[in-house]
Amino acid sequence: MARARAAATPLALALTLLLLLAVLVSGFPSASASYGASASHPASAPLAISAPASSALPAADEEQTSGVGLTGVDPLVATPGRPVTVSGTLDVARLGLDLSEAPGEPSDAATPPTSPSPTTPGSTSADPPASEPPVATVEVRLGGQIPRTSEEVDAWLTAPGPSGGTLIASSPVAAGTDPGAESIPFDVTIDDVEEWVSDAYGILPVSLEVVTAGDSEPAGVLRTYVPYEVRKEYEPLQVMLVVPVTVPLDLALLGEFGDERTAAWESLVGENGTLRQVLAAADDPSIAWAVDPALLEPGPAPAEVPDDEEEDQGAESQGPAVTTQPTTAPGTSGPSPTSPTVSGAPGGTPTPPTDTATDDGTDEQDLEEPPPGVREHTLRAEFAADLVEGVDGRTVLLLPQHDADIGALADDTTDDSTPEAVRDLLTPPLDVAAARETLEGAGAEVAPTVWPAAGAWSTSLDAAFAELLSSAAAGGAEDAAAATGTPWMVMPSSDSLTQSTRGPFSSPAGIPVTPYDATLSRAAGSAHDESSTVTAGLAMTAHSLIELNELPGTTRHRIVVLERDSASTGAAGDLDAVVDAVPWLEPAGLGDAGRRGALVEVTPPAETAVLDDDRARNLLTTVGRLPVAASVRADDGSDLATRGADVLDQLVSLRWRGAPEDWTTAYQPIGTTVSETFEGLTIPSRDISFLADSGLLRVTVENSLDTGIENAVLDLTVEDPILRVESGPQPVEVGADSRTTVGFDAVAIASGRVDVTATLRAPDGTILSEPTAFSVRVSPTSDWIYWVLGALAGLVLVIGVVRTVTRRRPSA
Fold first, then answer.
1. pTM (2 d.p.)
2. pLDDT under 50 in the chain at which residues?
3. Please, where are the H alpha helices in 433-502?
4. How many beta carbons lie within 10 A of that of residue 672, not counting itself?
5. Of 156, 265, 357, 545, whose CB count within 10 A is highest?
6. What is the CATH number of domain 681-785?
7. Residue 433, SS3?
8. Nearest to residue 548, comparing CAs of 579, 522, 573, 524?
9. What is the largest CA-CA distance in the chain?
10. What residues does each domain of the chain span?
């Protein structure tokens, strides 16, 4: 009996092994079959980052690397039976690698090594050639438990030190051929993830550990994830990636027309400018753009435009002409010639001026240097045209003008009320009707959107914004969302919501709210260079899996935003490639994106709004007085009316948060110029004697400004009818730091003393200086003076005659 049981034991073991093998085979279909349900995600899709996509953007200063960087994963999502190759670079200095044995022939550090071949546990590999000795070994080790929450995903990524997990692949790394190289490339291949996974799809936590010769502990560790899919058991998440196209905080962009300002705009919108790179990285139509409407215009026109440019922009031009038209300045009802508009083509697409040539073929613009500002104007017009051209078939989130800081409505209040000056300044930026028409005419799906700072949107801010919309509507409107004629949507962070399900919702004030996903956005936002883009894409993939598994059988939408003015915007194309490659993610439009939930009182952003009550009141005053000052300043009035007004418009922007000193630096020159215009003109008060029946009454005007004054008028108001001023308001022109005398025709009616008030006004009637009162002593001569003078003359004549007649004759 014992022998029978002993003989049966091997048979039972064999049957058990066969049964397990059958289960494993049935659970792991071939790589080609595993993607049959998701044709848009080919199994071979790699994640390989090309340096030009983001290398021009600086890495974050606080970034601390482990010395190990990823440059590609091929394929991005592992499938059974197919190897996964992880490529990257090793930082020589940080890891302390010794390249002294390198042959000394410079090579391209970006070229993958051809030797040695990657190895895996249980396999053998030939040692590297003697000319390229190994300086380190890259090991891939399994992590611990598969993460099931976002917190666990982050915990694995941020945990220090080696994982201590199972070794699943390794590869020695050669020194290369350049002993002075700053980094060396590596490839390591995982033969198959089949034996390490158990779910139908998921993420495998792994650590890349670099072990140098003679060391037992890794010199560098990078933790990441390897996504995998065995079979599709979910409805993919619909993802819309949003890239901001906004103006950064750069004081040089607001300075006087000249080389420095032109260079700043060229670095932003020129051929290799930052925003040009953003558009190139985010050129896929599935990527949404959050656009500042100000970038759809060529900006303030310089004071002088060459004749050839005027001709190119004239009626004979085949394209639309860029012309400067008055627009309403913030907080005012009158025109302010600050924003050029576009005419001559459907949709208002700006066309940049073209060069002209002389009869002999010489470019006229080469003959003489154009006035300051012309080059900038041309660059901005070209960028605006290209921006409009790129929106066809794309979702565009149209921000308020200059990306106005709507969050300031509730940032400086202690009594749940918004300062009136803040409301007045933030109302005009909501008028984006012209920009919307232009974009829709170019084929874009446009959604006017408020994207608050740090994504913070509370119930108090919601109420303040609804009040702003209502007050902006003529006669008011019950529906706050349509108060301005524009259906504004708010896109806050999902952190501003309570527990949610799906879809957009209406706020308590009736405003559509479509939040972006804070977790996925933070993961995507960690991309700033070639290496971090790969790790950011893998982190975003891991977090998306957690959200997918909350309701795997339900179609849901997520919005992923890249923060304004961040290096991650240059990686937009690579992050979009992640969405394309991961089978449980699908690119989508705005649609039914977002989450449903209730607003909560969130912690306000650490960087508070610069536009507080005091600054808002000063800015609003300057905005209202600027057109008046510009109309009378002889030397710089045109620049003040265009560039100066544009600077003031931009001071409501969200980009000034956390930079109050820069805000003051930008505001002060314009504010000082405007205020000095009203303080530098005076009329001295002095008594005048008017000793005539009629004549000129002369009044002196003094100008202490460093610019001449023109187009001003002076008028007199007489308090008593004994003196009548026959002339109306008289024109005043006075040079810089000088004085002039203005004469008025006057008639004396009776004798006496009369008070006269002199007022200096702008062409629109605005008072330029404090009215001056002075006294005039009136002494009309009338007819009696002539009788007296005649009598005196006759008396003198009679006396002369008498003396002549009665004068004794000399004796004979």
1. 0.78
2. 1-44, 48-64, 106-130, 305-362, 364-366, 412-415, 474-484, 501-502, 594-596
3. 433-441, 459-472
4. 12
5. 545
6. 2.60.40.10
7. helix
8. 579
9. 202
10. 31-233, 241-305+348-356+371-587, 613-679, 681-785
